[in-house]
Design brief:
about 15% strand, alpha/beta, seven-stranded mixed β-sheet, about 40% helix, Aspartate Aminotransferase, domain 2, 14 helices
């Protein structure tokens, strides 16, 4: 039974919860009809007691699984001590969190925020300020170069340089100052960067676009272009970072060190929104009192959770798991290409898989996977994104891929039966 805080009858079934959400929230999401009540590790349990493997992990926010004991323990301890001060005062967790995260990233300073979109917005503000104060760009002339098919958030500014019609349509006028080039095209990127370019903003792997891995050498080329033109290279590692791809940061696969890391999602341990702009003093030092802030950014509870996440990553265990188990996941998925899958992409414990559109939509496959105890998310028609928590086991990976294989076989069988019926009727 799901209790309703603050009064009102308890919502006891998935149908009740679906009805309540449908009538009381705007339809800006299209969730699967599952109402989760509990989670542990890679597993969740719905209100009726059915268990599922979570192969979305809240878009990588749950890299360490549901209710990781170290993160829960640290949060519970801090909740009893101090939860919020605002940045008008100091607290005993802020400096240590920023120092530890900066060290993990090989940088000098950290600007803590809350959501991933806030981190990107903050990074863009810093880049423009840096362009005017340090690079000497004329006032209001700074531009930022971004990639097509990007996803950096859904604020007005961030959708202003999105190429997704669903994200943009009906929300103009848009924020100027951005140049969009094809993702993975180093020549186009170089042509777009000029003396007034404050920064190049890229995702090392484009998640929402379908887990698109750029050509080998692309990130290194972007790094070189920025260095030559005196622009900042900003890596949005909100989804790709913190162990997901088999290294702490996805940029490490090409040995690239950006000028700015934008972090979030997994930094909050699946408990609270925690994000950060991480860079050297020469970049973040351009901010002065009153120019930027956040009441909840860098709160005691956020810093405590963030410190625990950093400590977990320092061991290297999760990066190693993502790398080794990722090899197994991609081998299993690649074996299904031609048997219902068209293509498999990704790195580490992250995969974008394209379903044969003649077989089913991504939504239909997700609905059938749900019936077999696996939760996944479709994107862009017939594409699925698989991103299990990094605590997943080999056996759990196999269980999920086995379920996917069964779904594809069932869909193919149904298609063949339907084809035979049409031929017979004809």
């Amino acid at each position: 039974m799901t209790k309703t805080p603050g009064g009102g009858p308890p919502r006891t079934s998935t149908a009740d919860i679906v009805e309540l959400v449908e009538t009381r929230t705007p339809h800006n999401y299209h969730p699967l009809p599952v109402a989760i009540a509990e989670g542990n590790g890679a597993w969740v349990t719905d209100v009726e007691g059915r268990r599922y493997l979570d192969f979305l992990a809240a878009y990588s926010a749950l890299n360490f699984g549901h209710c990781h004991p170290d993160i829960i323990g640290a949060a519970e301890h801090q909740l009893r001590r101090l939860t919020l001060t605002s940045r008008a005062f100091l607290h005993d967790q802020l400096g240590t969190f920023c120092a530890e995260l900066a060290e993990l990233a090989g940088m000098e300073m950290v600007l803590p925020m809350n959501t991933g979109a806030e981190a990107v917005e903050s990074g863009l503000k810093v880049a423009r300020k840096w362009a005017y104060d340090v690079k000497g760009v004329p006032p209001d002339q700074a531009n930022v170069v971004v990639a097509a098919e990007n996803f950096h958030g859904r604020t007005i500014t961030l959708i202003s340089f999105s190429t997704d019609p669903l994200a943009r349509r009906g929300f103009g006028p848009y924020t100027p100052g951005f140049r969009i080039v094809p993702y993975g095209d180093a020549a186009a990127l170089e042509a777009a960067v000029d003396d007034d370019t404050a920064a190049v903003l890229l995702e090392p792997i484009q998640g929402e676009a379908g887990v698109i891995v750029p050509p080998v050498g692309y990130l290194a080329a972007a790094r070189k272009i920025c260095s030559q033109r005196g622009s900042l290279f900003m890596a949005d590692e909100i989804q790709t970072g913190l162990g997901r791809t088999g290294t702490t940061f996805a940029c490490e696969h090409e040995g690239v060190r950006p000028d700015v890391y934008l972090l979030g999602k997994a930094l909050g341990g699946g408990i609270v929104p925690v994000s950060a702009v991480v860079a050297d003093r020469s970049v973040l030092g351009v901010l002065h009192p009153g120019e930027h802030g956040s009441t909840f950014g860098g709160s005691p509870i956020a810093c405590t959770v963030g410190r625990t996440v950093v400590a977990l990553l320092r061991t290297g265990e999760y990066q190693k798991r993502a790398k080794e188990l990722g090899v197994h996941l991609h081998e299993r998925l690649s074996a299904l290409v031609g048997g219902g899958l068209v293509e498999v992409r990704g790195r580490g414990l992250w995969a974008g898989i394209d379903i044969d559109p003649a077989l089913a939509t991504g939504r239909e496959v997700c609905e059938r996977l749900m019936q077999k105890g696996v939760l996944a998310k479709d994107i862009h028609g017939s594409t699925l994104r698989l991103a299990p928590p990094l605590v997943v086991t080999m056996q759990e990976l196999d269980q999920a891929v086995d379920a996917l294989e069964q779904v594809l076989l069932e869909l193919d069988l149904e298609r063949n039966v339907s084809r035979r019926r049409r031929l017979t009727a004809g």
